[in-house]
Amino acid sequence: MKKNIIAGALVALAALCSCEKQHQVGIVAHRGYWQCEQGGGAHNSIAALAAAQDLGFWGSEFDVNMTKDGELMVYHDSEVNGMYFKDYNAADFADIRLCNGEKIPTLDEYLTQFEKNKKCRLVFELKWHATPELERQAVELSIEKLKAHGLFNPKQVIFISFSFNQCKLFSQLAPGFTVQYLGGDQEHNPDVCFENGINGIDTGYWIMYKDPSWYQKARSHGMSVNVWTVDSIDDMRKCIEMGCDYITTNKPEECRALLKEMGVKELKAGKNL
């Protein structure tokens, strides 16, 4: 009897160890790795993307707005210098410079840089747009641009958005891709996301702390779990221990060091969960 108990315990321990070995975490550089010398402190810059690529992080997150004349531009906010992208043409932004001297990149320019090193995954955030019609236009144009660069591939790109409608559109128009809803509102909790064909969540880490059911619901549906924007070591540790698949952070090198310290495998660039 005692031998059976010991044998059972060893089997359980082996299974636990196996699960732990399989747990990998992908590091996503928030707006590229801008917070380093190479990135020049410039969010969403070509240099920041290149830094994330060169250092081998799993992914580089970036933000996309659509101009009045239908150009997609990589910039976080909906406006710059009081000029809203929705109200101005792309040419109106030509003389504006980021803090490292770069101009605001178009999506085409950003994707051209990505083509130089395709191991780093694109974490493509499409920003809110004012009407359902504009949102569909922006989603369709995003897919068109990716196809033009030979990057419309679920192994190269995941889509994220605070717009539930845009997430649904990506799920419909890009089947097989990972699509993660960024919001934390109960109206669009993981159960609702899953019912609408959305297969992942990318949620503020504090929402996971406040309501653990978010993680549990997502996992019950086999959804991927990403968290943003995790910059403190304590919060990184909690998210890693929780079992999140991806950590989006402004401090990717610190996250890498923590994973190593904790003995958790970092998901390598070019690999998928």
Content of β-strand: 15-25%
The low-confidence parts are: 1-21
Q: Kindly state the mean pLDDT as a whole number?
A: 93
Rounded radius of gyration (Å):
20 Å
Please work out how many helical segments DSSP would assign.
10
Q: Roughly how many Å apart are the termini?
A: 40 Å
Topology:
Blueprint: H1 2-22, E1 24-29, H2 46-54, E2 59-66, E3 72-74, E4 79-80, E5 83-84, H3 107-114, E6 121-126, H4 132-148, E7 157-161, H5 164-173, E8 179-181, H6 190-195, E9 200-204, H7 205-210, H8 213-220, E10 224-228, H9 233-242, E11 246-249, H10 252-262, E12 265-266
Parallel strand pairs: 1-2, 1-11, 1-12, 2-6, 6-7, 7-8, 8-9, 9-10, 10-11
Antiparallel strand pairs: 2-3, 4-5
Helix pairs in contact: 2-3, 4-5, 9-10
Tell me what the structure shows.
The chain is an alpha/beta fold. The chain has one domain (24-266): TIM Barrel. The protein is built from 10 helices and 12 strands. The chain has helices spanning 2-22, 46-54, 107-114, 132-148, 164-173, 190-195, 205-210, 213-220, 233-242, 252-262, and strands at residues 24-29, 59-66, 72-74, 79-80, 83-84, 121-126, 157-161, 179-181, 200-204, 224-228, 246-249, 265-266. The strands form 2 sheets. An 8-stranded parallel barrel has the order 1-2-6-7-8-9-10-11, surrounded by 6 helices. It is globular. It starts with a helix and ends in a 7-residue tail after the last strand.
